[in-house]
Design brief:
Distance between the termini: 77 Å
Order of helices and strands: EEHHHEEEEHEEEE
Helix content: 25-40%
Amino acid sequence: MSLISCPECNKEISDTSSKCIHCGYQLKKKKPVKKIMVVTGSVMVILAAVVLLVLKLCQPDPIFPTFIELMECRSPEKVKDILGEEFSHSDHENGFVFDTYRDIEIDGLGCVLLSIDYENGKCTGISWQTQKMDQGSKDTFFETMVDRFGDVQGYQTERYGDITSEQFHWKGEEEFWLHNNHSDEDGEGIYYIEVTVNWR
């Protein structure tokens, strides 16, 4: 207990008094915070933190993260940082140069060929072709592209013998062509994906 001054008569009174003992002035008492409100508030904060943590832990890892990272590269050095130094180098008289990775695996998908392309001394982009995959993997890859790069801006289809090629085009800071190649051979649902990224 401590003493305070009465707002009316300025005489000292106890801070627990409801009115001044000298002049009868009615003092306004601070309403105590209800314990249940404090407990409820604390519990709600803890629950919110737990829910956010669970959502973060349950969030699935990005699908094909390395492929997406490769698509967003803008230099051969960055590609080689990701894939390593096990590539072959080819020079051609017509001015085209290729640094080539063969039969590698990226994000669980076999990659027959990945090429870093140069033309007349300038790096122009990367391209690659996956090994055979089923329709589910092909569809998932396409959905990943749409999730990351937005709606397709261009589409065309072509036929080469028993191969149907669906060609999807995205254009942004980089330019992407995604070819879903479907073989009708033996009536099997066999797909290959070819991707070309042009650096500008």
